[in-house]
Amino acid sequence: MEVQNMTNRWAHLPESLPSDVCRLVHELRGLKDRSGLSLHTLAQRTTFSKSSWERYLNGKTLPPKQAVLALGEITGSEPARLTALWEDAKSAWNDSGRATARGTATDTGPTALAVHHGSAPAARPALLARLSSPKGIAVTAVTLLACSVGAALAVRDQSSRESASAEANTTVTAPAHRLETTCFEDSCTRKDPKQTGCAGDAWTAALTKFHGVYVELRYSDSCKAAWARISWGHPGDIAEVVTGHSKPLRERVHYDTDVYTAMAGAVTPASARACTTLTSGQRGCTAPGGAEHLTEPPNPPTTPSPSGG
User: Within 13 A of 150's CA, how many CA atoms are on the CB side?
Assistant: First the structure.
């Protein structure tokens, strides 16, 4: 099974895969990588299973148009471009004979349904000429019957595998309930991640230690929003989240050692950074967010009391 390795590099696509299909798959891989979404998260946020996404992103099956547009919607991509890429890929996939060989539907429209029920699409002139003789008609009838039975068995077998995979995912990895949030992207700007529910799936997308203070970029996949958090700080230290399309949002440590800012809408973690300005006036920032879920900072050391207790 073709999967990403630990350096986030995808396995090579089959050499026999048409170039238009490769172009579509590379586009979808890029969207997934830049968004930081896992296959499990894609399955949760779309109607397609984790195993289906694995096949789509490794060129084993042409993704349905609905899957392509669903990923585009999640990542804020232009639907017209994705539609054009998918239509070119579908044409190349069908011309290569893969759709017939695999018994796989590439669309859910009337044309695809007609093929599933054994109705042949418009034939090319040369093919019609060969089929016009009595012998050709007889051979065609037998061939169509065999193909229909084979396709039906293949589709049933694929459906059984997907049902089993979906059941396994539901039993083992699915959460007890969908995360309840009250904002998305720009509507999250200046809002509290805890009060909106966005903190429910928060993870650390970037981390640095600046003069003893940990600076984190926190990110929510469900809300498409980022915020900054500092730990091991001192009263007066400032946390700041910076994005390219809105004013930086800041919050000061009033007591204790940590504080977090309000959120800023961010389509991907890569569009945001977290910074801190210390009471000394020194300022440090993380790199833009990445796709790896980083380990959160440890708790600060306990300061001994004056009595030594």
Answer: 11
